[in-house]
Every structure is written in structure tokens, then in C-alpha cells.
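dumping this here before i forget
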Amino acid sequence: MKKIFFILLLLLGFSGSQAQVLSLQEAVNIALKNSLDIQIAKNNEEASKINNAGGVALALPQVTASLSDNQSLTNLSQKLNNGTNINRPNNANNVVNAGLAANMLVFNGFRIQATRSRLLAIERQNSDVVKAQIQNIVANVVIKYYDIVRQQGYIKTIEQSISVTQKQKEIIEVRKSVGLANNADVYQAQLDLNASLQEMESQALTLMQAKTDLMYLLTQKPDSTFDIQDTIVVDASLSLDSVKAAIKRNPEVQSAEEQIRINTLIVQEVGAQRYPSVSVTGGYNYARSQSSAGNFLLNQNFGPFIGFNVAVPIFNGGMLKRQQQVANIDIKNAEFSRTILMNTLLTNAIKAWQAYQNNLQRIKKEQENNKIADSLLQLTLIRYQYNMATIVEVKEAQRSFVEAGYRLVNLTYAAKVAEVELKRMAGIFPL
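structure:
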């Protein structure tokens, strides 16, 4: 008996000195800290904040400075109107130009305002993407965490079944010692025990792989050793109406709404190009030209300047019209995508709610069945001990007990998954 439980402990790795206990909150915190998907979403959000600047939308002045210095060597040949001829080879010339200019766009059909609004909408959209990614990561961690609890529930049921099989084997060995059983009965009992141990080993493998999956979600070493000491508790307080109302605030829905706004602003940006564009320029220029021969040996001028430019679009082959038509189509597509997303979320919410309600109702009945199956197994084992029940009856009671235990664990886990999914779609942290 001690050997069997030593094997079970070795298989499951439940050594308190080696395995650290991991709580659900700790698992969620680790996932949020280490998730690369969240980091990517946050980087995109940061990039949109950087792009949301006046300079990107051309709302700030454009200032440039220039400097050029050209040295040349030329052969000069001039004939003046007074009959004088000038011929001078290897004439050195130097031309220097420098300037500082600023250009400020004053009006371009309100395109600047539309661009600034679009950049702000993109920033909000990326923020919604981060929120959605966080909720998805948390939901996945919660589901995988409770899957491990479910696998441990299976193991507890198998352990109880093994205990009964071991007890049954001990009874047969006692009977054999007094001549009431033969070797065939002992061999069969040992085969039943070995089969149960094999089932335990298989379930231990499933549990270890579930833990590996959780470590992947937490971005930890896949072979990290940890233990989970928890039970599945289902929140039975959810209502379908509250979930439906909250879906409108779901980050994915908010992101789809922002996409409609972004496409609408793109239409405004394209339409603004039909209007005249007015800009003001100003600056300071310096020019100096020096020559070793010719009529002008030195020519120099400098000073400030100011002016304005007006550009009126007249015809560009209908390009703006086509761009605006395409942008309007993008708005419709964004609206369709938002509608599809809402329909999908509502459909999934109703299906999750149906599973949630159904499983909650069945859990109560299955808890009763589990108690009955346990009582039946214990009673049948006592009757078998006093030779009032057959080995077939014991096996049937064992089978009923194991099936009832599996059903109870599965129903509780399924109800928890439905609860988490409802909270995720409603934009509620699924904890």
C-alpha cells in the first residue's frame, strides 16, 4: 500500500519541498508581466502616441536652413558695346548663398484638423487593442489554470478507485489464506490494480502537459515545477441581460467603432484636397557673388523676406473623386465588420450563457449522484468483504463511482469556462 502511494507521489511530483504552490492571481500577474503579445500591443500603442503630433499632421511650421558655397574657374570672354574686348583665362569665381526659411500652412480645407482627429482615433484604437489583449490573456490563463485543477480532480477520483481495488485485493488474499479463494482470484485482483495504476500514469502525463501549457502562457520555462492547490468555484451571479449590455463596451467593439471614425476622417482628409491651400512663408536670405574679372567683381545682397502662397486644385484626372469613393466604401466595410463582430459576440454570449445555465443545473444533480456513487461503492465493498456481493458488483460500483466523479469535475469545469467566456465578452476581468 505504501509502495503504491509512493509511486503516485513520484508520478505527480507533489513534493512540497520541490514544487512551489502557484495561485491563480500569481499566474495572472506573471502572464500580464511577461506576455509578449501584450508587449507588442503596448508598443503599437506607444507608436501611435508618438505619431499623434502636430508635426505629423503639418500643423506646425516647417523651418529649413540652407547654405551653399560654389568655387569655379572659368575663361572669360566679353565684348562690350563700346568696342572693348575682354579675354581673361582662368578667371576665379565664388558664389555663396545662405538662407533661413519658415513655411506655415494656414488653410488646406480643414485637412489638418481631420488628420489630427484621425491620429487621436488611432491612438484610442491601439489602447482598446491593448485592453482586449490583456483580457484575452487573463481569460486563457484562468481557463488553463482550472484545467489543471480539473486534471487533479480526475486523479483524486482514480486514487479513490485504486484504494478500493487495493482493499479488494487484500480481502482476496485473506480469503485465499483460509482456502476460500484461489490464485486465479489473486491474479485477477492484481491485474485490476495494475490497470488502475496504468490509468493513473496516463492521467499524470495529461496533468504534466497541462502544466506545460500553462507555463507557455506565462512565458516561463516549460519544465518549471509547481503545484496548484485550488478548487473550481463557479460564479452563479451572472445575468444574460447584463452581459448583453456590457458587450457594447467590449474593447474589440470599441476598436471597431474607432475604425469607423478613422475611415470617416480619411474621407474628410481626401475631400479637403479639393479646397485651395494657403501657406505663409518668411525667412532671411544672404547671397554673395565674387569674380576676379568682368563687369561685376562683387555682388552681395541680404535681408529678410515674407510672402504667401495659394494653390488651387483645378484638375487631376478625377483622382481625388476616386479616392473619396474608395474611402466611403472603407467606411461601409468598417460598419459591416462592426456589425459582424457584434453578432458574433452576441451569438457566442447566448451559447455560453446556455452552457453556463445548463451546467449549473446539472452540477447540483451530479453532486448528489457523486455522493450516492461513493456510498454505493463503500457499501458494496463491505458486502463483498462479508461474501454478500460478487466481484462483478464491486467493479460495477467502481465504474459508477469513477464516471460520477468524472462527470462532476467536467461539469464544474465547463461551467467555469462558460463563466470566464461571458466575462471576457462583457469586458470584465475574468477573475
